[in-house]
């Protein structure tokens, strides 16, 4: 299950989690979903002009300030509106936040108050079997995890990269042990996150450029299995003990 599924028909099943709203939901017939389209030969492929799928997972606690993400999405929506007025286009965003926790209802109220035209936001609690499918289907993972000690790394980032999905992560002292220029980006503010999302969204349909490089870097991370990772550490510890 923990693999890259972006070009897999299973992605169409995840669309049920996202409400239809504004220009994000422009699939007009039974042959197309929000992300995929059935071809004449019966195969399913990614739909041209589809939204960019962002995913974030959370326990909805004070350790993660989701107002940073919501503010960044408002900035992106404004940039998309300005692009339309200027005769160009930014992809719409479909944002799915998964998890349970004490602040979920608070942020859901904040989300309901937003009036965004190019961004659709949904919250959900996924069964264990659907969670890796979502991560492997996403274009970009977002981590808002912060560490009071500065020493604990977010497991959600390991999960995202483990599915081959690039990550934008909130910066703290040791996050670059996981997220680096090869597989993602680190941000420190809503404005910086909005700029990162916009830059990557512009690259979504391109087969070259920074976004494709991050995909390759995330895939390299995914291929590091337990034995490959622990053996050099074990040998180093053995040499030190000897």
Query: What is the percentage of strand-forming residues?
Result: 5-15%
> How many individual β-strands?
8
Considering DSSP H and I runs of 4 or more, what fraction of the residues is helical?
25-40%
Give me the oligomer status.
single chain
Q: Helix tally?
A: 8
The geometry reads as globular
The chain-level mean pLDDT equals 84
Q: What order do the SSEs take from the amino end to the carboxyl end, as H and E?
A: HEEEHEHEHEHEEHHH
- Strand order in the sheet with the most strands: 5-4-3-6-7-8
Low-confidence stretches are none
Radius of gyration: 19 Å
Structural class: alpha/beta
In angstroms, what separates the terminal alpha carbons? Answer: 40 Å
Could you please describe the fold and organization of this structure?
- The termini are far apart.
- The protein has 242 residues and is an alpha/beta fold.
- It is globular, with a radius of gyration of 19 Å.
- It has helices spanning 11-14, 67-85, 104-113, 131-137, 155-162, 190-201, 210-222, 226-241, and strands at residues 36-38, 44-46, 52-57, 93-98, 119-124, 140-143, 167-170, 184-187.
- The longest helix has 19 residues, at 67-85.
SSE diagram, text form:
Elements: H1 11-14, E1 36-38, E2 44-46, E3 52-57, H2 67-85, E4 93-98, H3 104-113, E5 119-124, H4 131-137, E6 140-143, H5 155-162, E7 167-170, E8 184-187, H6 190-201, H7 210-222, H8 226-241
Parallel strand pairs: 3-4, 3-6, 4-5, 6-7, 7-8
Antiparallel strand pairs: 1-2
Helix pairs in contact: 2-6
In short:
The protein is an alpha/beta fold and 242 residues long. The chain contains eight helices and eight strands. The mean pLDDT is 84.
């Amino acid at each position: 299950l923990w693999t890259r599924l972006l070009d897999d028909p299973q992605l169409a099943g995840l669309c049920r989690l996202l409400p239809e709203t504004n220009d994000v939901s422009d699939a007009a017939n039974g042959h197309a979903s929000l992300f995929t389209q059935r071809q004449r030969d019966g195969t399913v492929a990614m739909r041209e002009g589809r939204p960019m799928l962002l995913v974030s997972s959370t326990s909805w606690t004070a350790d993660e300030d989701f107002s940073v993400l919501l503010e960044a999405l408002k900035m992106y929506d404004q940039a998309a509106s300005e692009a339309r007025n200027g005769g160009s286009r930014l992809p719409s965003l479909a944002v799915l936040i998964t998890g349970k926790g004490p602040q979920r209802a608070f942020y859901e109220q904040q989300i309901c108050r937003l009036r965004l035209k190019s961004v659709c936001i949904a919250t959900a609690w996924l069964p264990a079997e659907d969670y890796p499918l979502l991560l492997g289907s996403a274009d970009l993972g977002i981590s808002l995890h912060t560490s009071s000690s500065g020493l604990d790394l977010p497991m959600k980032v390991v999960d995202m990269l483990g599915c081959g999905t690039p990550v934008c992560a909130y910066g703290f002292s040791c996050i670059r042990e996981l997220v680096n220029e090869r597989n993602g980006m680190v941000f420190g503010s809503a404005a910086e996150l909005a700029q990162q999302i916009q830059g990557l969204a512009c690259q979504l349909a391109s087969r070259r450029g920074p976004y494709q490089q991050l995909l390759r870097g995330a895939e390299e991370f995914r291929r590091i299995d337990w034995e490959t990772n622990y053996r050099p550490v074990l040998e180093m510890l053995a040499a030190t003990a000897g």
